[in-house]
Specification:
Bound molecules: 4'-phosphopantetheine
Number of helices: 6
Strand content: 15-25%
Distance between the termini: 45 Å
Strand order of the largest sheet: 3-2-1-4-5
Radius of gyration: 15 Å
Order of helices and strands: EHEHEHEHEHH
Oligomer: single chain
Largest sheet: 5 strands, parallel
Shape: globular
Number of strands: 5
Structural class: alpha/beta
Length: about 160
């Protein structure tokens, strides 16, 4: 295992089994993994940042080297401030590449000491996104193959209101 801390940044609105698969893989490689939730300025999120953090904290309990945090502003500023030089991103399919390359190159231009490490989720998760999960939840569909049970419960509670 590498004696390095890596950040796994994202919106996580909500955490899916695909995110968890990436977290598990990252925790096998890096000494510490910080899952950091973006406090979105523009997007109106379904879950508040505190709710998203709590849902992630519950899900990462099996991995002692994973912790959960929040960030706002530029990812590179957060990384510099916390002395982190590795960012993890999940790459599901070729369709993710353009967006991810854009972000990774912009980040590297802003912070040349950093590296973005791409991890592939298991093939069961290549189609899975938080937005499709929100859509299924809003229409009352079954959620159990997409998200952990406590996230499914939180989604059902949101849309029962
Ligand atoms: O889960 P997401 O929404 O795909 O995550 C995107 C995220 C949070 C990694 C990205 O939007 C981000 O880092 N935003 C913070 C602002 C920033 O640093 N942008 C990168 C330069 S364009």
């Amino acid at each position: 295992m590498l004696q390095k801390t890596a950040v796994y940044p994202g919106s996580f609105d909500p955490l899916t089994n695909g995110h968890l698969d990436i977290i598990r893989r990252a925790s096998d490689i890096f000494g510490e993994v910080v899952v950091s939730v973006l406090m979105n300025r523009h997007k109106t999120a379904l879950f508040s940042q505190e709710e998203r953090m709590e849902l992630i904290k519950e899900a990462v309990k099996p991995w002692p080297n994973v912790r959960v945090d929040l960030f706002s502003g530029l990812l590179v500023d957060y990384m510099r401030k916390n002395n982190i030089t590795v960012a993890i991103r999940g790459l599901r399919a070729v369709s993710d590449l353009e967006y991810e390359f854009q972000i990774a190159h912009t980040n590297r231009t802003l912070y040349p000491d950093m590296e973005t490490v791409f991890l592939m989720p298991g093939e069961n998760y290549v189609y899975l996104t938080s937005s499709t999960v929100r859509e299924v939840a809003s229409l009352g569909g079954a959620l159990d193959t997409f998200v952990p049970p406590h996230v499914a419960k939180a989604l059902r509670a949101k849309f029962a209101k």
